[in-house]
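Section handout 9: paired folding examples.
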Amino acid sequence: MIARRSVKLKKSFPTVVRRDLDPSHLCQQSRFAPVEINMSPVEVPSAKSPSDNFQVVSFDLDSTGRRLVDEICHIGGLYVAQDGSEKVFSNYIMPHRDPNPGARRSFGIRVVNIGRFRMLKNLENGVIIKTKSEFSVMTNFLDFLSEAKGSSDGIILVSHETGPKVIVPLLLVSLERCRLMEKFRTVVAGFANSSDLVARYGDKDKVTSGSMRSLCKTLLGDTNPNTCSAMERSKIVMKILQKVVPSGQADAPDISKVKEDLSTVQSEEEDLKSLRQILSAQSGLRPIFFKELKTTRRVVRDRALGIRKRVAETGADYNYFEELYKSKAESDDVKHILKGKLTAFEDDDLDYLVSILDRHFIGEYVESPVSNPETK
């Protein structure tokens, strides 16, 4: 008896074309369909330009430190709408690096580890802060600026800094990292510093210092301002502008005065490029100043850091000094050549630099007395 093998027949179904899966149909109805965006840069305003159709937005940042490699933790922004109401922006970013001790004291935040998770914590009340990714926050910030721009010609971002620039370079680095600079150029016309406006239009009899806390006391009458948060500092910046350069229209500052010291986005990008070159040169000069930077004597370390920075600003790098010593090995010849290049150096600083260079490239070192900066 032969066993018969059962064979299952595959049923054939008619081909059905679903309209909801048609690619052309998706492109027509999807909210992610490509949209034409005007990527032309904003026309840069100038002091002589008759147009004052620009929107002023005050902003500030909380970061993990004051170096270019540090990251943004918090962005705060504020602008005054046409109806007189204040529109605010405040978003926190979860940084990859931990804030240094100075940032923890200044901004009142720190990174805590809970199990396998890293979180941002407010040191004042102990609350865990809700954070987002850097790309999400930067995208939200550009949306906020686009909303503030409205029908105006562009945005003027105003911050308050009395020392070296930190806020604007950190913002540009973050935008470059998120590849959002093109969109940023279409919205923002430039940057301004409220400390420069206070120095020009402020009352010289009242203003004794350019720091934010001092201006709160002398201009705003607030003896105990809250400056820990970037959001609170952006509010203070707007109040300072309203006090120093008022326009009389819905508590908005005078645009014609704000744009007098305007720095364009292009100029800030060029400054960032030169800053990166200087930092790269300083990093290359580290082997020469290794002994001075490693010492525990703060006077020696501070003097070496200052000399290294001034040398890097002149454009001299490690290869320049190496080629110099290959061609001219005598200290007197090296000093004569460096005196022509480092014109801003005093004789004692130049002798100190030559002694460090001799030790590194020749192996001879003459101990140079450390001058006290306070006596100069």
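Moving on to protein 2 of 2.
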Amino acid sequence: MAQQPKEQTIVRAAVDAVEAAGGVAIKYSAAPYGKAGTPDVLGVLAGRALAWECKRPGGKPTALQAEQMRRWAAAGADVRLIRSKDEAAAAAAELAAGLP
């Protein structure tokens, strides 16, 4: 069985996918002044804010992360749970194309 990618590999792929599609993105780090539970990747692509939580395949957000994702979505951001490099590339392509 193939080894699962590390979460940091998926985060890097998500940031790279957004930037390759013409957007800007960062890996968010809560320390020391941030807000716990904020999604891993924050950015803007095609005029749309995005807040993506990255997990290894099968991983689930914590309750705090899920609440923060809900808040970002309610504020109008594109919020997704990204579990692979392919999901990151597909999500960035959808946003760049103006898809919901």
